[in-house]
């Protein structure tokens, strides 16, 4: 018997676990002191009324013999998949319902999709990046290359023919930087992937925060993407489902490598290893796309957008270099005085009782930068920004 030794190649602690531990230690040493948290990207507003109402009705369905649901379809109920299909159609992206596979969230899909890919595939991941991309591939023992996001390219790395990778991760709006690719920039990546017979895993978890109509919210708005990309999306940040868990992947039928359909493999994988997202949760998710649901969810999204605006405007007034905050819930800024990201984290926590996320936890290129999230209480956000500006 052997365990997977690739897990030993992971860093000792997941970034957000370290942040949480430091906060616990501070609170234990300073009982009664309030800590203002702009660190982990978890929503704070309750689920929309339309969503809750749908969930209550679904619970009632489970209490009656004639409407009770046992095992559901592993790939998702058609009532939800049809709503997702219409959601994309309203943005001029036409999908086949069989290309939409419902899951329990984007994070799960980003890891599980690797099951259908050869272990020898080389992976290209931007730096800085959401740590789960890296860790999932380390666990599988894949070779990882990174492409550099930095001040010079606005934290939006572009293709380079020196990259010879098979799997490419793109997140737009980006976590952690908040940077958003334009259509021309995404077209360059799509063309590169098609030319090199590579696959793009496109993380669109934050697409609902894009308000600039010139910016793409789906990679399938880009010509040629259906032969080189899988899109992963989630209800977590769009509709506050972080504790409810529901997401989906779009795997086009044109996506074929070596004569094998990626759609067929993903369907087979999910049918074997996943029993489907609960009926009650899928009913709640379908309500997200109802007329009332969309209105209520947009109100919640605007609350977070306004939080982001408060942070962004404070940095603009102070002349602090930053990215994000206008089409994204994240603001990524440069820490002062050549401090390291963790030095600034400790100083901010100890002196101002504010918590953010050190940029170095997202990769080497994150050193010297810091991430703040707009997913907080309004009053706490205002007070936290005031304290950050004082420290800067």
What characteristics describe this protein?
alpha/beta, 15% strand, four-stranded antiparallel sheet
Number of strands: 15
Which shape, going by the Cα principal axes? globular
Within the largest sheet, what's the order of strands? 2-8-7-6-5-3-4
Largest sheet: 7 strands, mixed
Please give the alpha-carbon distance between the first and last residues: 54 Å
Helix fraction, binned, reads 25-40%
Low-confidence stretches: none
Give the class from helix and strand content and strand pairing: alpha/beta
Q: Which series of helices and strands comes N to C?
A: HEHHEHEHEEHEEHEEEHHHEEHEEEH
Indicate the radius of gyration in whole angstroms. 21 Å
Q: Compute the average pLDDT.
A: 96
Describe the overall structure:
With 392 residues, the protein is of the alpha/beta class. The protein has helices spanning 15-29, 49-61, 78-89, 106-112, 131-140, 183-195, 236-239, 262-273, 279-287, 291-318, 341-352, 378-391, and strands at 36-37, 100-103, 123-127, 144-148, 167-171, 199-203, 229-234, 247-250, 256-257, 260-261, 322-324, 330-334, 354-355, 357-358, 369-373. The strands form four sheets. The protein has a seven-stranded mixed beta sheet, with helices on both faces. Helix 5 (131-140) links the parallel strand 3 and strand 4. Helix 2 runs antiparallel to helix 9, helix 3 runs parallel beside helix 9 and helix 10 (291-318) packs parallel to helix 12. The longest helix is centred in the C-terminal third of the chain and has 28 residues, at 291-318. The mean pLDDT is 96.
